[in-house]
Structures are given as C-alpha cells and as structure tokens.
TrEMBL record:
Entry's EC annotation: 5.3.3.8
Lineage: Eukaryota, Metazoa, Chordata, Craniata, Vertebrata
Protein name: Enoyl-CoA delta isomerase 1, mitochondrial
Annotated family: Belongs to the enoyl-CoA hydratase/isomerase family.
Organism: Enhydra lutris kenyoni (northern sea otter)
GO biological process, one term: fatty acid beta-oxidation
C-alpha cells in the first residue's frame, strides 16, 4: 500500500477514508495475507494528521474527522493481516501512529527521516490511545520522555529505543520489509492472528469502550481558542520556512 497524498501525505479526511477503504478491501479478500505500508511522496512517509482538518472548522466537522482517525487506527491496529511499514521518509505524529500500529517497522537510514509523536511541539497532546500504542512499543519511561518533549527520533535513535525494528540503507527499505514478511507468513495464520489479538485487544478495547467520550473530548479540546491559535501559529511557521 503506497500512500500518495502530495505534498506530505497529511491524513486528511478524504485520504483517511481512502486508506480505510483500501484496507477493508484487502482484508476481505482471502488471497491477501499481508500489507507493506510505504509512501509514494519522496522523503516523506507522512506529516501526520491534516492540520487543515483541525483548524477553523466547526464541531460537527471535528467530530467526523476524529471518528475517521479512530476508525483507521482500530482497523490497522487490529488487522488480521501482517502489516509491515517500510518507512521511507519523515514521519510525524498521526503518521507515526500508523507505523506504530504495524507488526514490524523498517526505517530508511537517512538522518532527515525522523519519526515520533511530536504533538506537544504543536501545543496539543497525544490522545491516550496514541500514548498507549507508543508505550506498548518502547516502554513507559521512553514513551513518557518522548511524549513530553515531542521527540522526533532520527533512525539510529529510533532503532535504539525500539521505535523501529530495523534500519537499512534507503534503497533497501522495501526489500528488507519483504524479507521480514517471509518469517511472519511462515507462522500458521490462525495462531499468529489470535496471538496478535491477545496482545492488542486490551489497548483497543479501551478506546472502543470510550469512543464517543473520546470524540467529545477531542472536539472540546480542539475548539478551544488557545488551541486554535497554537495550530495557526504552527501552520504559519511551516509556511514561513519557505521564505
Ligand atoms: C483532554 C484531552 C483531549 C484529547 C485531545 C487530543 C487532541 C490531539 C489532537 C491531534 C493529534 C495530532 C496529531 C497530528 O498528527 S498533528 C500533525 C503533526 N505533524 C507535524 O508536526 C509535521 C508538520 N510538517 C512538517 O514538519 C513538514 O511539513 C515536513 C517535515 C513533513 C515536510 O517538510 P517540507 O518537505 O519542507 O514541506 P513543507 O513543510 O513546506 O510542507 C508542504 C506543505 O504541506 C503543508 N503541511 C505540512 N504538514 C502538514 C500537516 N500535518 N497538515 C496540513 N498541512 C501540512 C505545509 O504547510 C505546506 O503547505 P503550503 O505552504 O501551503 O505548501
């Protein structure tokens, strides 16, 4: 699955919906057993959630958007397919969440390709299920520091803290993901799927039990004047970079 939403693969409502539909199609076709998730945007895996969806819109839109973000995470996190990410670019916040939801992560060795949950740098916070997904991957202490500081880890550090499983030269990222896949596909499917569910269901259940409350919390939080201002300032900084 090659993500293509130029220029930065930001996860707009339309793009989230496309990803969701693609994933559902693959999951319902018995011929498919695995997905390699990668990017078609040079140097960028994903810039995360689309800030334009969270800025200057109305509460109904925020609720619809957040429901789609929840849906995509639940679908990826609990997918019965083997999902491996071949991370071939910088990967922030919501994009990093997608990669963390995979079963295995290969990252291209380029110091520009940092990844992490950098929400605090925007003046916002990672929701509890983003946090839980990170904790499940790197452990509590590393996650606490990474989340508070909004750290984006370059490849060597991402590997060292366990945010990714392998770092390879940039031209080998897809072949390394394919080689890894062979090991996962050699395991009897039902046993691997049940084990994945055993490991992940408690984390997913937390959100499933509180979905509506989580949407309401998001809408209240994102609608605050101070948060809207912080997002506008961040977007402005991104644009000023060019001048
Ligand atoms: C009480 C508790 C309640 C809980 C509430 C929880 C609330 C939590 C809410 C949300 C969680 C948020 C998750 C996220 O994912 S937020 C997004 C975080 N992403 C980032 O910080 C990355 C930002 N982007 C960049 O750093 C760079 O763009 C880059 C490194 C990815 C690429 O750099 P470069 O190649 O130089 O491109 P440009 O910066 O020039 O960007 C091109 C173009 O794209 C626009 N853009 C970039 N990122 C985004 C984005 N995430 N959304 C929308 N648009 C984006 C950028 O502004 C440029 O636009 P242009 O000037 O018009 O061309």
């Amino acid at each position: 699955m090659k993500m293509r939403n130029p220029p930065v693969n930001s996860l707009s409502l339309e793009f989230l919906t496309e990803l969701l539909i693609s994933l559902e199609k693959l999951e319902s076709d018995k011929a498919f057993h695995a997905i390699i998730l990668t990017s078609d945007c040079p140097g960028i895996f994903s810039a995360g959630l689309d800030l334009m969806e969270m800025c200057g819109r109305d509460p109904t839109h925020y609720a619809e958007y957040w429901k789609a973000v929840q849906e995509l995470w639940l679908r990826f996190y609990l997918s019965h397919l083997v999902v491996i990410s071949a991370i071939n670019g910088v990967n922030a916040a919501g994009g990093c969440l997608l990669a963390l939801s995979c079963d295995y992560r290969v990252l291209a060795d380029n110091p520009k390709y940092a990844m992490g949950l950098n929400e605090t740098l925007l003046g916002i916070i990672a929701p509890f299920w983003f946090k839980d997904t990170l904790v499940n991957t790197v452990g509590h202490r590393t996650a606490e520091r990474a989340l508070q500081l909004g750290l984006l880890f370059p490849p060597a550090e991402a590997l060292q803290v366990g945010m990714v499983d392998k770092v390879v030269p940039e031209d080998q990222v897809l072949s390394a993901a394919r080689s890894e896949l062979a090991q996962w596909l050699a395991i009897p499917g039902h046993a691997r799927q049940l084990t994945k569910s055993l490991m992940r269901k408690p984390t997913a259940d937390r959100l499933l039990k509180e979905r509506d409350a989580d949407i309401q919390n998001f809408v209240r939080f994102i609608s605050r004047d101070a948060i809207q201002k912080a997002l506008r300032v961040y977007l402005e900084k991104l644009k000023q970079k060019k001048t």
